[in-house]
Design goal:
Blueprint: E1 8-12, H1 20-31, E2 38-42, H2 44-53, H3 58-66, E3 75-76, E4 87-88, H4 90-98, H5 104-107, E5 115-122, E6 128-132, E7 143-144, H6 149-155, E8 165-167, E9 170-174, H7 184-188, E10 193-197, H8 216-266, H9 283-286, E11 296-298, H10 314-334
Parallel strand pairs: 1-2, 1-10, 2-5, 6-7, 10-11
Antiparallel strand pairs: 3-4, 5-6, 5-9, 8-9
Helix pairs in contact: 1-3, 1-10
Length: 346
């Protein structure tokens, strides 16, 4: 089992060839001494998450990304009319094994660098499965089991673009099909502080508009883009609704506690209930309530070209790495945290 600490969670979205963006964000976080205890990864986020769980840091992971090209990830399906996909991901499986991206022996041992969660969507049911290398703190549908290359490739299996991946006798597609940046697995794993990295503009002020697709692959990529955005916005709304509900419950507990204390004092009792956080609620009444701060959301202000989902080039990686670093800096500042240092040289 990984380290006992479970306070900080990093949630990495899908986005294919745009995954170098994650590494720029990770570089910024490491420079500010923010190291994740939990990593939840979907699609390319599962690849980067597994690399982090294997012991890679931003520096070593960036070295791997700088060498990654389209031919290392995919090749044309020579019989597209007889199958359900356009590109074959056999090269990705081979690259991850050959180039030392992932060490499953470490991931599935006490030496794992983080509590890792990866997601995949069951083709026949549309059900999102969460696989992990450790037990959750809170009740969930987590499937705790030794993670393998099949888990990672399944999470990367973009529908229509890549083939579905067989796992436990079932076929799986990309986890982003139904949940691109799932906050639930991070919370279930025990997170108290969450940084979410999504490679699609998400807020009301962002300029969210993609170019018109010019090919089948670009059309599929645009479809995935909007699915990624919708799933995250839905997840964030649910997160905030739950937090608001908990705030109401805490306030209700506070009023009940005050009423109980006043009643007992009127009856002449000497009442002294411990309140270590000075929020007006005796700790004994508050143990089951756990409010989480809003996640820090790192995202671009403008859409990244959709063709980057299926293209892996050095110039593209360098631009995305720099963008991820700068967007992380902006999100950090907007969260009221101090920023140190300058932008990294690529």
């Amino acid at each position: 089992m990984p380290k006992k600490e479970r306070r900080r969670a990093l949630v990495l979205s899908g986005g294919g060839g745009r995954g170098a963006y994650h590494v720029g964000v990770l570089r910024f976080l490491e420079e500010h001494d923010w190291l994740p205890d939990i990593v939840v990864g979907t699609s390319i986020g599962a690849v980067n998450g597994a690399a982090i769980a294997s012991g890679h840091n931003a520096h070593s992971l960036w070295s791997l990304w700088r060498r990654l090209r389209t031919s290392n990830v995919q090749k044309p399906n020579l019989n597209p009319l007889s199958g359900t996909f356009l590109l074959d991901t056999t090269p990705l499986r081979e690259t991850l094994q050959r180039e030392g991206w992932i060490n499953f022996e470490r991931i599935n041992s006490d030496e794992a660098a983080v509590h890792l969660r990866v997601t995949a969507t069951e083709v026949t049911t549309g059900h999102l499965h969460v696989f992990g290398n450790s037990e959750d703190v809170f009740d969930s549908d987590l499937q705790r089991e030794p993670l393998t290359m099949d888990h990672i490739i399944a999470s990367c299996s973009i529908p229509l673009v890549y083939p579905a991946t067989e796992l436990h006798g079932q076929l799986y597609w990309d986890g982003a099909t139904v949940a691109n940046t799932p906050l639930g697995p991070a919370i279930h794993a025990g997170a108290e502080e969450i940084v979410v990295v999504i490679m699609t503009p998400w807020d009301d002020e962002a300029e969210i508009k993609t170019s018109q697709p010019r090919s089948f692959l670009e059309a599929a990529s645009v479809t995935l883009e909007w699915a990624l955005l919708a799933s995250f916005q839905s997840d964030l709304k649910m997160f905030r609704h739950i937090n608001e509900l908990l705030k109401l419950k805490v306030e209700n507990a506070r009023l009940k506690a005050l009423n109980s204390v006043l009643s007992r004092k009127l009856q002449g009792e000497d009442v002294a209930l411990e309140d270590r956080d000075d929020d007006g609620v005796p700790d004994i009444l508050q143990e089951k309530y756990r409010l989480l701060p809003d996640p820090i959301i790192v995202a671009p202000k403008r859409p990244i070209p959709v063709e980057r989902i299926i293209r892996y080039t050095l110039d593209g990686h360098e631009a995305l790495y720099q963008m991820g670093y700068e967007d992380a800096k902006r999100a950090w500042q907007e969260a009221g945290r101090p920023v140190e240092g300058e932008s990294p040289a690529t």
